[in-house]
Amino acid sequence: MLEGNRVSRISVRGFAVASATAVTAVGSVVGVASGSVAQPNNDAEATAADTTLLADLPAGQQAQVQTASLTQQADAVAIQADASAKKDAEQAARVAAAKTAEAKKAEAERAAKAAKERAQAKQAASRSSSSFPVQSSYTVAQIQAMAQQMVASGQYQCFSNIVNHESSWNYQAVNASSGAYGLFQALPGSKMSSAGADWQTNPATQIKWGLNYMNSRYGSPCQAWSFWQANHWY
Q1: Helix 153-167 vs helix 221-231: crossing angle, to nearest 10
Q2: pLDDT averages per 10-residue partition of the chain, 234 residues
Q3: pLDDT at position 24, please?
Q4: Is 187:194 a contact under the CB 8 Å cutoff?
Q5: What per-residue confidence (pLDDT) applies to 35?
Q6: Mapping DSSP to helix (H, G, I), strand (E, B) and coil, where does residue 174 land?
Q7: d(CA 132, CA 130)
């Protein structure tokens, strides 16, 4: 402290050194510890000359030095914490961005797949029953070939599964007890007339009706097949 115009024993530089080099424990020595060996160079001697021991300070100034040291350390910890928090935030942002990009990619792939299926369904739908030559009879292979041209490729297996279970691809199959008829065991069979008057003899007409039925009632052959698996009817 000041006594008149005289500066106290600890100099301004000495106080600065003491504040900068203080340790956190109360009562620790600031600067060069008592009894330590000075290095034989001018810089070390100059530093030692300007360094004041904490024990040499009045009690009030000791508290000031310790407070300055603790404040400095707290500031350093705060700076480090801010840097760590910033780093964590940046990492979290990168992870979130990667997840968002992944989700957008998956959504784009789903949309592309759906668009492809719609295009295939549209192309398949353009193949009407009249696109196939009328015959007096048809083999299973011929009926399946028709279906493959009329049903979207991604839906064909589900479509085929239903036909397999309903009629084993026999377009003239009749249920003796109910009268259900054709590839899809329509009941009554005459409802297939909405797809063509030749519904009894033309499997292509039946396929057209069955595909329209699955799409309108369930959304797609695969959704119709899911329902069939759960209920054993559709």
Answers
A1: 40
A2: 45 46 42 46 55 67 76 86 85 83 77 62 57 90 96 96 97 96 97 96 96 96 97 92
A3: 42
A4: no
A5: 46
A6: strand
A7: 5
CA atoms within 13 Å, Cβ hemisphere of 55: 5
CA 139 to chain centre: 49
Residue-level pLDDT at 16: 46
Asked if 179 and 188 touch (Cβ cutoff 8 Å), the reply is: yes
- Other residues' Cβ atoms within 10 Å of the Cβ of residue 129: 20
